[in-house]
Amino acid sequence: MARPPTTTALVADVPVDTRHWIGGHRVASAATFTDHSPIDGAPLAEIARGGASEAAAAVGAAAAAFPDWAATPRAERARVLHAVADGVDKRREDLALVETHDNGALLRSHRRGVLPRVAHNFRFFADRLLELEHAEFDTRGHTNRVSWDPAGPCALITPWNAPLMLATWKIAPALAAGNTVVLKPAEWSPLTASLLADIAAGAGLPPGVLNVLQGYGAEAGDALVSHPGVRRISFTGSVATARHVAAAAAAHLTPVSLELGGKSPLLVFADADLDLAADLAVEQYDNAGQVCLAATRLLVQSAVADAFLRRFTERAARLRQGDPREEATDIGPTIHRRQLERIDGFVRRALDAGARAVIGGGPHPGLGGLYYRPTLLTDVAQDAEIVQEEVFGPVLTLQTFDTEDEAVALANGTRFGLAATVATGDRERARRVADRLVAGTVWTNCFFVRDLRAPFGGSRRSGIGREGGTWSFDFYCDLKNTVTAPEGWTDHG
Ligand code: ADP
Q: Does pLDDT of 116 surpass 90?
């Protein structure tokens, strides 16, 4: 007789339930899939492989829980979200360990950077909810009152590069707004979503308000975004998948927010602090380059190209690549063999087309498995695939420019528009150039400074819509204007 699949995996000694979380219950699927660790390729867990019936059950649970949660006073919703944040803080170490084993990003970043921000996502949107103002204005004695009505069940689809960070960046405002949620985490990093479900239940979030649907994108994900009961879809992932999601959303006219990829530039002007510029450039290898915001195109003014490159290569040589659990490691593995092969394909084709690898240019020979060497390619043309397409790995290109106009033209010369970074010592230039860049976020002499009050999203192929601050509530709410006549008003004359 076949053994029933186990429903709990032990990951770094942390028990993780491998089933869905639907309506406050753990729900198994007949089929499972194996989740592997990118650190050493070892199997971590057998995860429930959801499909149409589990997606329907999750949306049903979210729909059933919606009226009560939507009617829960704002202050109470905010209190529960703060309790979820407390729960995240209490389990920070477990979450950090499981996330690192599951997606291979650095344990030290999870501990110090990511997990505090995960808790902050809940606290921020809980507090922001309480500050949301109902706009009121007058039309010939009639009052207009704009209210933020919750929209209904939300489908949230997240990628594997920052699983808990991106899930909670969507969950927190969706729940704060009074919606209920079905989260479909990426199949390559499904584990921390399950822990979050435990934490939310422990914090008193009512059953059905947050549901976690596990499974493959083409199965569980597709069934979820195609479900007519879903009232919002927020998706972070690749452009190719976004097309499917947007088409599914179109079938029911479900409002959709798409946060997609990038091919962001780092512009280094001759008047920049070149040490800072080189630091910023090397920072782009964080998370093995698997960051949508990464400035993967270094655009350097010709006069300082050699000086910049010297500083860059010195720093890159000091990067330590290896086990992401080690405190000393700077660059861990890529997420999956398919991803490594994809990255290497881009690099091979670029080299074949005449690019030169100043550093890197292939997988790490010593570490085996999924580690790709930090790579910098020069001698690349603006229309080359390596300059135009998102690699999502530790691969940067370097191009030079002479004038500011040329820099802006190169920077804007892809179909993406997610972010841009400008290194310059001239604040006027910084402002002037930022004004001309097509990007959702522009950083000057810094990188990755993110404030939850700011709008976040991309232009062109980098996405549709903005989330963050009040913009998240704009997306997750149905805004309503109620117009009331003055006392004693008669409309006939
Ligand atoms: P990547 O190519 O970087 O792995 P994807 O965009 O394919 O990124 O994946 C991001 C998320 O989208 C994952 O949770 C994945 O399961 C999900 N997904 C993939 N295909 C679909 C689909 N057809 N419908 C809905 N979600 C999908």
A: yes
